[in-house]
Design a protein that fits this description.
The structure holds 2 protein chains of 2 kinds.
Chain A (H helix, E strand, L loop, with lengths): L12 H8 L4 E5 L5 E2 L14 E5 L3 E10 L13 E8 L4 E6 L12 E9 L2 E8 L2
Antiparallel strand pairs in A: 1-2, 1-3, 4-5, 4-7, 5-6, 7-8
Chain B lengths: L4 E12 L6 H16 L8 E5 L1 E3 L2 E3 L2 H9 L5 E5 L5 H14 L5 E9 L3 H13 L12 H16 L3 H15 L15 H6 L2 E3 L2 E2 L8 E10 H7 L4 E9 L16 H12 L8 E4 L5 H9 L8 H6 L16 H5 L6 H14 L12 E8 L4 E8 L3
Parallel strand pairs in B: 2-5, 2-6, 11-12
Antiparallel strand pairs in B: 1-9, 1-10, 3-4, 6-9, 7-8, 10-13, 12-13
The chains are: A mainly beta, B alpha+beta.
């Protein structure tokens, strides 16, 4: 298995079209103003299907993290140790990512981070680096 | 709910690496062992509920039909259920509701599991099963890492240390040394230093903070109370049940450490008319050493921030005030994949039945079992008692 590449589908297409041009988009409900990840075909707060998106600032902080020393499968062997984090974006939305270009020891809860991108197959993946 | 429903029998094969045995082989070993012990016949049973057959690379969701056929019974209820590690108590609840409503009399709830190694071709299936493949999968999560995210946050908020986590693994080993069926029965005692010196898997978990991948499974017999009294010397009464599913991925909003156990536990206590102080034994799902600490707080056994001190005092050890994971836990007994929650259920039921042998806790009147599926997502709490 090579490094996993997301499947582009109807729910996430606008998200990955955004990352391809350096935009980090978050789903916005036009009815109740909720913001959420591109993981829902409707607003999870009011079920409206009248959605658009907002541009995130790309800044946030580490809400929690783990340093992976044992790779789940071969394709991640080259990357260990790598950091998986849940990042809380300034807009209040939580997302999973990797913290890159940073010694794992430096990562802590509350660390300010900003988005960076990694090419993965045909997709640009949002990653985060310390925002210093 | 269920002053009228009992668990009349509980049986489990010892967790091992049954590499030469398929999933259906394990189901037959489990049922064969139980039927030899229970002395019941096909006419006595009118329900079969099972977790999935197969394994993570291909689950069989029609296994209940195959088992009905092999057992030669005519069932009023039959179903394959999947809530991951939370399945087993949900199975008992399904059976108990049917019995309570007069739709069934005696139901076999069975589960077998094989824990695959992620590297053995199961990686892609596992990523798809445990997380959002598109928005989480690309970042290299696996089960231990997803738990690591929850544990790091828990330790941060509650001032819990690596030593505190290790102490949970130490307690599980103390129980395993009493239980000949546990995989680590002969592994000798464990110290906090042993845990901290074992290799780091994902922070904050060392190798010995993790449960032990195994194959195995078990079965319980859920019955009308009058049948329970006939078939068991001291049947285990189903006193309360709670279930709650607040999220499906760690990326969903909401607290990572105030889990669905808070509400499933509250529901179970309310139904049983009991409080945490009434519980004599607790089986708390321990996929990793952090989770019993978190569950002790979420279920109300400890005030917020007090679980580590409670565990360090020896309270959950043999002879402690609240024996926890009395069979060795998933950490030292073995984690049997799809059947992991069945170990907690069988071993909890055995405590209430008074058949737990060398690990039997004296006066185990009320037993609480808490399990969940996913990364602390699909929560089920059940309270069993030695009287209605």
């Amino acid at each position: 298995m090579s490094l996993p590449v997301p499947d582009i589908d109807d729910v996430n297409r606008l998200y990955f079209e955004g990352t391809a041009s350096g935009e980090l988009r978050i789903r916005h409900c036009k009815r109740c103003e909720s913001l959420f990840r591109f993981a829902h075909a409707w607003c999870p707060d009011c079920w409206s299907q009248d959605l658009d998106y907002k541009l995130a600032s790309g800044r946030g902080k580490v809400e929690t993290f783990t340093v992976v020393h044992q790779a789940p499968y071969e394709s991640f062997e080259d990357r260990i140790p790598y950091v998986i984090a849940l990042v809380e974006l300034e807009e209040g939305v939580r997302m999973m990512s990797n913290i890159v270009d940073c010694e794992p020891d430096r990562v802590e809860i509350g660390l300010p981070v900003k988005v960076a991108y990694e090419q993965r197959g045909p997709v640009m993946l949002p990653m985060f680096t310390p925002d210093v | 709910m269920s002053n009228h429903v009992t668990i009349a029998g509980a049986y489990e094969i010892p967790p091992r690496r049954y590499r030469e045995h398929s999933s259906i082989d394990l189901f037959r070993m489990i049922l064969g062992g139980a039927l030899a012990e229970w002395q019941i016949s096909p006419a006595d049973i009118d329900g079969v509920i099972t977790t999935t057959g197969g394994d993570i690379t291909g689950h069989d969701t029609y296994i209940h039909g195959r088992l009905i056929s092999e057992l030669g019974i005519n069932a009023s209820i039959a179903e394959t259920m999947n809530l991951g590690g939370g399945s087993h108590q949900a199975m008992v609840n399904r059976a108990a509701m049917a019995i309570h409503e007069g739709r069934a009399n005696a139901v076999i709830c069975v589960s077998a599991g094989k824990m695959m190694r992620p590297g053995l071709g199961a990686a892609d299936a596992m990523v798809r099963a445990i997380c959002d493949y598109n928005l989480e999968g690309p970042y290299g999560p696996w089960i231990a890492a997803l738990y690591g995210l929850v544990a790091t946050r828990f330790m941060h908020e509650k001032n819990v240390t690596a030593e505190d986590l290790a102490r949970v693994a130490v307690s599980a080993r103390k129980w395993a040394l009493l239980n000949p069926e546990a995989r680590q029965h002969e592994a000798g005692p464990l110290t906090i230093e042993d845990v901290l010196e074992s290799r780091m898997v994902v922070t904050p978990f060392h190798y010995l903070d993790c449960s032990l991948p195994s194959d195995g499974g078990g079965v319980v017999l859920v019955t009308r109370a009058d049948l329970g009294r006939e078939w068991a010397a001291r049947p285990a009464f189903v006193k309360g049940y709670g279930e709650y599913h607040p999220r499906g991925t760690v990326s969903d909003p909401g607290s990572l450490i105030e889990t669905g156990a808070v509400i499933s536990g509250r529901k179970a206590f309310a139904e049983a008319g009991l409080t945490p102080a009434d519980i004599d034994v607790a089986q708390l799902y321990d996929a990793f050493s952090s989770t019993p600490l978190l569950l002790l707080e979420n279920l109300g056994f400890c005030e917020p921030g007090k679980a580590a001190g409670f565990v360090n005092s020896g309270a959950i050890d043999p002879g402690g005030s609240l024996p926890v994971n009395t069979y060795g836990g998933l950490m030292s007994f073995g984690h049997t994949g799809e059947s992991s929650g069945m170990s907690l259920l069988v071993q909890g039921a055995k405590q209430a039945l008074g058949t737990a042998g060398p690990t039997q806790v004296e006066n185990a009147g009320n037993v609480l079992i808490h399990a969940y599926g996913g990364i602390m997502f699909y929560h089920t709490t059940m309270i069993l008692g030695d009287e209605p």
